[in-house]
Specification:
Belongs to the RecF family. GO terms for molecular function: ATP binding; single-stranded DNA binding. It comes from Blastococcus mobilis. The RecF protein is involved in DNA metabolism; it is required for DNA replication and normal SOS inducibility. RecF binds preferentially to single-stranded, linear DNA. It also seems to bind ATP. The protein has a domain of about 170 residues: Glutathione S-transferase Yfyf (Class Pi), Chain A, domain 2 (Up-down Bundle), CATH 1.20.1050.90. The chain has 9 helices and 15 strands. By secondary structure, the protein is α/β, with parallel strands linked by helices. The protein has a 6-stranded antiparallel beta sheet with strand order 2-1-4-5-6-7, covered by helices on one side. Strands 8-12-13-3-14-15 form a 6-stranded mixed beta sheet, sandwiched between helices. The chain binds adenosine-5'-triphosphate. The site of adenosine-5'-triphosphate has 17 residues, from α1.
């Protein structure tokens, strides 16, 4: 899949952009603050309907304007896909596919697949569990769009259950009966989410081990993935080791029901839900230790890169290359990591790269570029390097 044409209206710093793009690598180059990241952020938004930089939609809309529009024509094999998103902060967004409005905007999720690697990804290794849960759940939904509904319902039930727990201690009686009903919804949805996360980690783990070995080189400690759960997992997390059977949603719902019952007194005391996927964490291991708190800065950066390359490999293995977006990352990589990333970037169906200095981008990725300056983004096509065939 690749973006053939991108049009933005009032998106971030861009009043209007109208840009034709091609398959293969394209470098967006320009001075700091010219709006390069804003352009590729719009492509990422097509996939997750969120930004990799901030929570919420308000910052996506150009200061002073009421709404933003992202419109993209995508090519998938010999088929064309037109996606239009109207971003309305504070109100629901509107999405059209091939000019047909979607009843619910979240039905877009899973249709456009991107893998975006950016400096913010260091937080996947060093930051709060929230970052890693979001990474897992975004990828879950990309692979299984049905889970967008499960995720949204879980968040809604969690909110309502938390509100009830805050008042239940005083009200008791009726409130406790209502709590039983919410427990049923929470554990049913939680079991589905948990099973899907564990399956995803089992699928991603071998790609992560390979990608880290490629990035960090011979002799580096092996990288692995695990899961830290608020419910006991069979064999102390064995469900996430390669080849192990992943528990079913029903088994995990049952385990969650038991744990919720055990912790009811604590939950009433604290007025919040203490059991469930919203409190779990993806654990990234380097050798025998969890990377968070142990890995050096360079190792953490390599792990973040490997996690994104593993994601790319996983999605590619399912039949179609996702669009690879590399935001401002080459300047901070050493020669070995640059080469590992360039090899994947070169092979992807479409790679969008931002850089303030063109020379920071490996030469083999520099064929087509978009020069970004003074509110304009202009495609400049260089001569195709000898021996290569590209259709920019
Ligand atoms: N909602 C908005 N409305 C207007 N301008 C915005 C909005 N959001 C961001 N900007 C502006 O966009 C600019 C940043 O754009 P962007 O992050 O794309 O820069 P960049 O070219 O990638 O820079 P760098 O090379 O420093 O990473 C800033 O000047 C910022 O003030």
């Amino acid at each position: 899949m690749y973006v053939r044409h991108l049009q933005l209206g009032s998106f971030r710093s861009w009043e209007r952009v109208d840009l034709a793009l091609g398959p293969g690598p394209t470098v967006f180059v320009g001075r700091n603050g010219e709006g390069k990241t804003n352009l590729v952020e719009a492509v990422g938004y097509l996939a997750t309907m969120s930004s990799h930089r901030v929570a919420g939609d308000a910052p996506m809309v150009r200061h002073g304007d009421p709404q933003a529009v992202v419109r993209a024509a995508l090519r998938r094999g010999d088929r064309e896909l037109l996606v239009e998103i109207e971003i309305n902060p504070g109100r629901s967004n509107r999405v059209r596919i091939n000019r047909n409005p979607l009843p619910r905007p979240r039905e877009l999720l899973g249709l456009v697949r991107t893998v975006l690697f950016a400096p913010e990804d260091l937080a996947l290794v060093r930051g709060d569990p929230t970052e890693r849960r979001r990474f897992l759940d975004d990828l879950l939904v990309t692979r299984m769009p049905r889970l967008a509904g499960v995720r949204a319902d879980y968040d809604r039930v969690l909110k309502q259950r938390n509100a009830l727990l805050k008042t239940a201690r005083l009200a008791r009686g009726k409130a406790i009966e209502t709590l039983d009903v919410w427990d049923g919804h929470l554990t049913d949805l939680g079991g589905q989410l948990l099973a899907a996360r564990l399956q995803l980690i089992a699928d991603l783990a071998p790609h992560m081990a390979q990608a880290y070995a490629d990035v960090a080189g011979e002799g580096a400690a092996p990288a692995g993935l695990g899961y830290s759960a608020t419910v006991p997992l069979a064999g102390d997390g064995a469900a996430v080791s390669p080849g192990a059977r992943v528990c079913s949603a029903e088994e995990l719902t049952a385990a969650m029901q038991q744990r919720v019952a055990e912790r009811r007194a604590d939950e009433l005391d604290r007025g919040m839900t203490l059991v469930g996927p919203h409190r779990d964490d993806l654990v990234i291991h380097l050798g025998p230790a969890p990377a968070k708190g142990f890995a050096s800065h360079g190792e953490s950066w390599s792990l973040a890169l490997a996690l994104k390359l593993a994601t790319f490999a996983l999605l590619r293995g399912e039949g179609e290359d996702p669009i690879l977006i590399l935001d401002d990352v080459f300047a901070t990589l050493d020669a070995e990591r640059r080469a590992a990333l360039a090899a994947v970037a070169r092979s992807a169906e479409q790679t969008l790269i931002t850089a303030a200095v063109l020379e920071d981008v490996p030469a083999e990725l520099r064929g087509a570029r978009v020069e970004v300056a003074d509110g304009f983004a202009v495609m400049v096509k260089d001569a195709v390097p000898v021996g290569e065939e590209r259709v920019p």
